[in-house]
Amino acid sequence: MARDFQKMYQEKLRTAEEAVKLVKSGDWIDWGMFNGKPVALDKALAARKDELRDINIMAAVSVPPVPEVVLKDPMGETFTYNDQHFSALSRILQERCGNVFYQPAIFGECEQHMLEGVRDPKKLGTSLRQFYMIQVAPMDKDGYFNWGVHNSASYTMATKAEHIFVEVNHNIPCALGGNSEKIHISEVTFVIEGENTPLAELPTVEPTDVDRKIAANVLEHLRDGQCIQLGIGAMPNILGKMICDTDLKDLGGWTEMLVDSYQELWESGKMTGIRKNIDPGKINYTFALGGKKLYDWIDHNHGLASCSVGTVNHPKVVSSIDNMISINQALQVDLYNQVNAESSGYRQISGNGGMSDFVIGSFWSNGGRSFICLPSTHTKKDGTVISRIVASFEDSTIVTVPRQMVNYIVTEYGCESVKTAPSWLRAEKIISLAHPDFRDDLIKEAQKRKIWRRTNKIE
Description:
This protein has 459 residues and is of the alpha/beta class. It folds into 2 domains: 5-193, Glutaconate Coenzyme A-transferase; 209-448, Acetyl-CoA hydrolase/transferase C-terminal domain (Glutaconate Coenzyme A-transferase), CATH 3.40.1080.20. The chain is built from 16 helices and 25 strands. An 8-stranded parallel beta sheet has the order 1-10-8-6-2-3-4-5. An 8-stranded mixed beta sheet has the order 14-13-12-11-15-20-24-25, with helices on both faces. The protein starts with a helix and ends in an 11-residue tail after the last helix.
């Protein structure tokens, strides 16, 4: 006899307030990442602040609306909010509240952590998480809820939890797989009909002349048929637009984050994916952040493949894609070519995310390479101009990519491959990418560190 999925739906339907009554003091709760963060469940959980103690929440890339568990408990008397990759909202919350913390992670490993039963950071155990709460698209006729634009580690996190609460949001598009893009009603504990909050959109950042010069330096290295991974920011987006104005053809897409420029590349005919040796004809991704136009494009699009992060980001998989080109941005690079892409001193700005996954994987790809891009300078609020190429990092600054892993570094002054270069040659190459106003001082610092030869030259 065929199962009645609508009947199962009604039997599992609860209000957010009813659902969170299952939560007990001491529980760990995983939330959907990005736009998967629950809204109604968050409010209902925050309302129980005075009844509960020691509740840990794990999230990633917090986007609006602001989590109520932080607003209602800014000192962390009940809730501790752990974010695996800081956003602008995460930074603001940490500055103003006492219960927001960064949780270091390599994005591609997230599913493996769950499969190995990592639960309590104070002791590695094999117990399941107590709860997984996430926003999903409405149930389809076959009883499936689609994760939408936040596949990531969702299915693994859900099935490694004791209780799964799905909060239905009609604004979430149906993102076709791929793999692991949905969950069945039979696997769900409770269904909550949410508030249909609009999905958070990334603000459009206008590219600068420096962004255009950096993009142009990368563009010189692109060839027909390559498979492109783009990170977040104005520079990758302008690079996508610039590609549309070239005669490049048959590019492929394989990326952690699907951004607006992929839609433009696809619609321009530049990104057909027909030369991809894995999943040809599709753009593979694990989550998306952009504008409404991007989200509408994703809905039921057979040219896209929503995949788990363990598929998209795994260096073994990335390295198996021929001609894989990884393009990401950094905050600073030092004379040793160490890369900081996540902090300003001790202040957490973003996170590792999948940067190291793609740096490693693209280097091992047949014909692949990795580009780490940054402007040579930064202008502070008081008008002071500082170099992003530095002699050494400020105390507590995080090294996101160690020097041994770095392939190409790009600024508006050029593009240099530093892989396997000795320290004196690395210093020469990175100083040649610095702003001319700072080169003499950087040379003096390199000499002090004994990584400068008498015959070194900077053009």
